[in-house]
Each structure stands twice: as C-alpha cells, then as structure tokens.
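User: Structure tokens for both sequences below?

Assistant:
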Amino acid sequence: MPLPKEPSKLATTLTDIPPIPATKANKRDTKKSALVQPPANTAVVTAKASTPALKLASSNTVVARDEKPASTGKSSSTAHSTQSKTRKGTEVNRSKRQVSGAGKKIYVLDTNVLMHDPTSMFRFEEHDVFLPLITLEELDNHKKGMSEVARHARQVSRSLDALMENVDSIEQGVPLSKLGNTDALGRLLVQTTELTAELPKTLPVGKADNQILGVVFALARQHPDKEVALVSKDINMRIKARALGLLAEDYFNDQVLEDRDLLYSGHLELPADFWEKNSKGIESWQQAGSTYYRISGPAVKDMMVNQFVYCDTGMPLIAQVIELAGRTAVLKTLRDFSHNKNSVWGITARNREQNFALNLLMNPECDFVTLLGQAGTGKTLLALAAGLSQVLESKQYSEIIVTRATVPVGEDIGFLPGTEEEKMAPWMGAFEDNLEVLNKPDPSAGDWGRSATADLIRTKIRIKSMNFMRGRTFINKFLIIDEAQNLSPKQMKTLITRAGPGTKVVCLGNLAQIDTPYLTEGSSGLTYVVDRFKGWPHAGHITLQRGERSRLADFASDNL
C-alpha cells in the first residue's frame, strides 16, 4: 500500500491521533471490541515500513516491569484460548478451525506476557503473533540469574531460536506449529524493518512501553483488513493503548477459572427428594464397619470420585463417592470424627466440612489433599493433628515435612542468619501456635513429661524451604504445603512432583489472601491443582466454610 504523505506538523495531543480504519468483522468471536475513533480532522501518522513485524508472547508467573496484572475478568475478544470452565467444571473443547485470512488477527505481545508464560506465543490458535525488536531487547535484559523471570526469558529465547532455524524468509512469518504445537495454526512474525508512528509528545519516545505502542499503531494502519491487538499484563499499558484508539487485552490463558464460584468445593448437597426418587433402585450392604450404597439416577451425573455428598432432609445421609461407572455410583458412609472416641490427636471435628477433611487426611488411599478456607476454619490444625497421629501413633509416615511460600504481608524483614530451619522459623508461627494446642500431655507427668513430649514431637517435624526443593524426593513423608495460594502452577508442580512412594501431600490455603502481586484467584497454583486433581481416585478436596477460631475472628472475617 502506498505510504501516506508526510504530515505538515507533529501530533501533540491525543486528539491529533488519526483514526484507525475499521477492521473486518471476525466471525469466530462472539464479543467485539469497538475501536475508539478520534476526530476526523487530525494529522497524518507516518508509517515508515510496509513489511510485517514479529510479535512475542510472554510467560505465566512474573510481570516484566513491576506492574500488577489485572484481576480476572471478561476479555473483549476471545481469540487466544482461555481455559474457562462451565459450572460443572468441564473444560470448553476447542475445535480446530480452518485458517482463513479474513478472520485472522495479529496479536502483538508485550514482554511481560512472555515472561509470565514462556509458551504464550503458541496459545493464539489460528492467529498470528508479532514480536517487536524492543521485546527481544527486554528479554535479553532479564535472561541472567536464577529467578523465575530469568528462566522464562531463557526458555522464550530457546523457543525463538528453534522456530527460526533453517528459515529462508523471516519476513513471510514462521509457522508456530513447527515445533509440534498442533493447536498453533498461525505464524510468528518478527520485526525486520523500522515500524514507527508519531505518538503524542507527552509519551516519552525512549520508553519501551511507548515503542511497543508505536509498533501496534503502525501495524494497525499497515493492515487495515485485520484486527491488530496488544496483549499485555500491564494495566497502565492497556489503558494507554485504549486511549490511543488501539485494541488491548489481558492475557487470560493462564486463568484456570473465570469465576471463583465455579471452583470445585469437594462436597455436594443431595436434593430433598433424593430418597423418594432413588429408594427403589438402591442397593446397600455392610463391610468393615461401613455402610455402602449403590445408586443410579439423575443425581449421579453431578458426582465425582472422592466427593462428599450429604442429605439433611428425610433420612439423613453423609457419605463419600468411592466409585463411578456410567450412571451408577457407590457411596460409603463416613467415619464420624466429631465424636470423642474418634478424635485425632485430641482434635474432633466441629462441623460437617471438618469431618470431611479429617476423613480425607486419615485415608491412606488418598495421596493428595487440598483444603481451602478463610482464616480460622482449622486447616492447619487439622493437617497437623492428622500428621502427628499417623507419624507417632500409627507409624504410617516417618516424619512431617512442613514448607510454605515465604511471601511477606508487609515489608520484608531482610536477611536472616542461621540454618535452613532457623531462617524458616519466623514464617512458621502458625504451626507453632497449633503445636501448642496439640501438645497437651498429662498434667500429672510434670514439667519433665511435657518437655519430653514436646521434644519428641519436634523431632518428627522438619521445616524446609521451597528454594531447595528441586531434585529432592520425599519417601514415606507427610508433606504439608502452607499458604499454597501464593504459588504459581509451575511452582506447585515442582513441589508435588517431589513426592515419592508412600508420601502424602496436603496443600492448605485461602484464595482471599493472595499476597503475590502477579497471581489472581483464577491463576493461583492452588486453584490449578484443585481443578486438575478433582475426580482422581487418590485425591480429595474440601472447602471449609465455618470459622472455628473465635467469635471475634469470625465477626472480623465477615465484617472487615
């Protein structure tokens, strides 16, 4: 296309930005982003190149320029494949569509997207991904070091190197499916010539953000037949782009759920007429002190293995789904941990959800347990009590391993001297408080007896730092991961894969207390594992509802 004429004067204000030509409708999108059209009588922006440029995507844990990403929300365009879930928790199946030139978009990736998710460039289905040269510069500046950001930057560089190997013409784009990513049907476009646009003088030219905005602006004018959109985790970057009349979106592919209310709770309330509709087809039998029911009917379709079901009307029922086969389910009644005779290290369940949690924690067939709940619901106390009982009484595990994400609520207190356990001690105040509750020896034993019991308990508890988990294997351990909501999906995978034979992993967390600035409720590693492990026969999850710490703590949680 011919280049526009040189402007007679420089654009100095937002109203001096020329209108961007309207794009063709994208048939595959259900929601369209409307371009902000500036006044018609504006100065002309000069585009200095006519060849396509390349766009780079970013990774999924940390933002490049210390910007906090936006919270989970609805995107104006659904081009890149979000892993949204329905209320039943089923993943939306993405059908492969024919690549049509008219419907394809060009997504310009900000650097922070690539460093947040190093595989993000392969997540845009049939659309093209463009990488500005300034993005390569920023990746190069962050590649050194042992941090998660540096590892992601190096991974992106290796992927780019493999994509461009033995390519004759980079200008025509490189197929993103070259490395075996069959869902990536678009091309990777690398900026090979100068692509600039005159932005308002109030935006500094030397800043990397503004250079990327200039590239997006020039591409939008160069390709009037396609939608050109900026993808960034930087909120202010997206605001500036929209103020200039450009399309801008957040990166949503790392979101496990769009709505926290869709998260699997681990329990299901049966309808009031459950017994009336299923009484004729129910089989029941006794085995090993438990009652089993085999049921079939419409209620089965919503059940999952290891899910807890209950019915408060008619004949009360509290049971666990232990087997699913088509439209038939086998339910097993639970052990009542609310009774003193079934107490765990002196602790009894105070509500229904705590009873569910103790049934999972004390089940030797359940290798992975996740407990969610607000402060004061008893997550740490239940996990520690179950661990001590199975380490010191039943001898099922050799010791308890405790670790947690060391993310401070306030300012960091700085360098801490000492051994690994001494460095982790300030972060383990919650466990110390709960150990005081659990360590209740016989008063007649005297001070020596209480001291001996405390020493015995502490010899069976090891506090470990997450920084030294790589390459380790825990055999026959009871591993507790506290504050798991502050972990990314990749960090969570690293920790869970440390489990060896005979090890049980328990993850505790509260999604309302995420302290990591780059994670949301939808992208937290805790949300990720709850969603991925649901329905696995050796995993269980419970969301604790009621606070049991004190009436003051309960009132504060509800009203502050």
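Moving on to the next sequence.
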Amino acid sequence: MTKTLRVFVPRDAAAVACGADEVASALAAAAKKAGIDVTVVRNGSRGMLWLEPLVEVEHDGVRYGFGPVSKEDVDGLVKAGLLDGKAATLFSPLAIGAVEEHAYMKRQTRLTFVRCGVTDPVSLEDYRAHDGYKGLERALGMKPIEIVDEVSKSGLRGRGGAGFPTGIKWKTVHDTPMGQQKYIVCNADEGDSGTFADRMIMEGDPFVLVEGMTIAGIAVGATKGYIYLRSEYPHAAIALNQAIAAANKAGYLGRSIRGSDYAFDLEVRIGAGAYVCGEETSLLESLEGKRGLVRAKPPLPAHKGLFGQPTVINNVLSLAAVPYILDKGAQAYADYGMGRSRGTMPIQLAGNLKYGGLFETAFGITLGELVDDIGGGTLTGRPVKAVQVGGPLGAYFPRGYFDTPFDYEAFAARDGLIGHAGVVVFDDTANMIKQARFAFEFCSVESCGKCTPCRIGSTRGVETVDKVIAGIEPEKNLAVIEDLCNTMKFGSLCALGGFTPYPVMSALTHFPEDFGRPATKLAEAAE
C-alpha cells in the first residue's frame, strides 16, 4: 500500500504574507495533475522567517525543507521530483536539507516551541501525539496548591514585561477564599515592535496555550478564562477558536475536565487596537467593555481584577510554558537559564538583520551572539550601531554592551529591560536623536491620558527634541529632556510613561554625538 506523501506549508501569518496560501494551492493542484496522493498540511512556522514560505516534504520520517518558495517555483520543484519522495536527494538552490539539522534549529533549546512548525496546529490528535496534554493529565492528579508550588519552583517569570514570578501571582489568587468567581486572563495583546512570538505560538500551537490556561484555572480555583487578543491577529483568532472547540468536544474544557470535578471554560475576546491595553489593568477595563484606562494600584488584579474578582493575568508565553513544567517537572525547567532567570526565552530577532526569526534558547546567551552570530549581522552589510531590546520602550544598547547576557537582572543593571524579548537591530545610518523623538511621539499617541506625566510629558518631549534638532539652545533643552524623563519614570501610573525614558536616555547616553555632544568613551570603543 502506497503511503500518502505529506507536504507542509505554513499557515503562519508571516508565511501567508509571503504567499504561502498560493504555494499550498499550487502544490495541491500539481499533485492532482500528476495523480500523486499528497496531503498538504498547513503547519505553523519554524521561525526561520527569511526562508518563508518554507515548504517541507516528509520522506522516511525526515522532513526536508525548501525555501523561500513562491508559486512560480512549484512546477519546477515538482518536475524535479519533489512529490515523488525524492526530497532527500533533490538538487535545488531552494533546498536547505533536513530541517531539524539546520544550524539555526540545532542551536536552539525548544521547550515552549517544540511543536511549532512540526504539527498541524488545530489537530488535537496531532497535539496529543507530540506529548500534548500530558501536563494537564498530571495536574488532574495533584492538589491545586501542589500545582502552584511546581510553577513556583520552576522559576518561571512573566514573559511579557517586568519578569514578575508567575508562582507568586498564582499563589495570591489561590489563597483568596473560595466562593468567589476567579478568572484566568491571557494577555495576548502583543503590540511591541519586533515581537511576534505570541502570534507564532497561537497560530502554530494553540493547544499549548489552552492547556496552560486550563492548568492555571485548576491551580487557583478559576472556572473561566479569557484570551484578550489584539485585533491585528485574525489568523490567531481562527486557530485559537478551532482549538478551543476541539478541546471542548474532547472534554479538555467544560463542566467536567476529563471526567474530573474541575470545570473551566475559555473564550477569545478581541481588543480594539490600543497599545496601552497591553498593560494589565487597561486590559481588564477593555475586557469589561470600558475604555482602556490604567487603574491605580493597589488593589492588585490578583485581589480585585476582572469584574472586581481575583484574577491571574499572564502573558501568552508564560502560560504556554506551564504544560512543559507540569509534564517534565519544575526542576527540568529550572535546569535551564542563569541566576534568577530560569528556563528558556523565545527571542525574536528583527530589524536590519540578515537572519530574522524566532530563536528559543536558555537565558544566558549574550546580545552579541544573538546579533552577530545567530542573526548574521545586518542585512545591509553595514556595521551595527544600536540594538533595541524590549519593544519601543526598550533601551538602545551600543556594541560596547554586546557582552550583556540575556538575563533580567543583567539588563536592568545596564538600564535596559528584556520585556517581551524583541531584538531590533539598527545599522550605522540610524540617527538616534530621531529614535529618541519617536519614543516620545509613540508614548504621546498611545497614552491613555489618565496621568499627567505620561500624557503631557511625552508631548513636551517631542517639542523639546524638535528644538534640539533645530539647534535652539541645545544644552538647555537636553537638560529639560533629562528632567522630563525623570518625571515620567517615577511619576507615571504604568509602564507606558514609566518606560519611555529608557529609549530616550539610552540614546542620549550612548550616542551623544547624534545629539550634538562629544562621543563617550564607550561609543568611541565601539567604533
């Protein structure tokens, strides 16, 4: 009996934007025309985005890759034997060999993204065949507090911002007296520049998020969960809703999870496009149907969150790490990393970079390794001038800081932040005073307007930078900028205003020549 050939074409939004749908259709048509029995599987992305659409053909249990493939390439590949099971020996400039053996893949430690790009994202059968739901199965045999303790011992910290210990949040909600409705809220409002890990996991392995949220619900006594998804992610919404429907049908969600006494329902809610709703209290306001305004804290969401009830709010990557921790154990996760930064981090490489994509690795890799080695340096071939880590509110690091290990405390020691681990690279044509202006402008546009330091400080910041650019009393106005940053950092209600000084002050500190000041020793050493 002839075995059906499986060909994989990503359904990931990045691949679709590069023509993956057209490639999949062309492959299906070519197979039909040739009378070859082929199943085209729409998998997630492997994360090698410079190769998208990446077509994979399975032969003798090995997946061979070709990319980037356009629909115009399909006929030539098919004529050369792509659909005849000859992928292993097919000569083509698009061939990259066995995908798992590619240098970019082999250097990674994939715990959260282990299935992404491998399985059919919306096939529950596929998910279970690749160790899916093993974490939940173990959790169902544990006491809730034992689950919380396991997450605490793993050292898992928030993957979306300040790196707050996940176990502490869960313990706080767990300890809230029963009888109250409790909620699990997933912050999927991924709005930082250069970040796409949340989108990739939701599109490429949505069940891992569903499983992670279900485990969280059992651990803290929550029976309802919401995924707050940004409106710009329609492909993720489709995948998540398909996964939730499949989980409900199979008894992994609902009134009695797998025949147990635990109940958990899950729902996707779409945001309205406000960047500030990535801040947890603004998110809660929006989820309640109100305008996304920051709430003053205390009370903390763990005490009074959604609809005034105890609420766990975690980022997508935090919740997606939970199934591995429950399946393999806390120590297996904690064995990776450095210092207080345990486990792995899915790092997103973007900007002016030769090999942009998703790279999951243990904490401790240096910024220089990520940019020069794994990322291959700039796409333009010009020298790297600055690297911004942590989105539009992250600090700009010069080459002199490339020895900084990817670690929350190491970045904080140099006035930087990891945030959601987006790494955006700039070459030596970047003008850093313009980047500082952009930071102020971004904050002024996205501010919810509730607090004065953020609302007014950012606007005054744009005006003052414009004066420096125009040569109007530059030293006096640079002093005003420093004062504004100090006020915003310590006076803003949330991280939008509080973190805007990071890109502004790092640009001024490390690239003073772009502001009309003499270069520092650090800047000179980097030349």
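User: Anything stand out in the second?

Assistant: The first strand starts at residue 5 and ends at 8.
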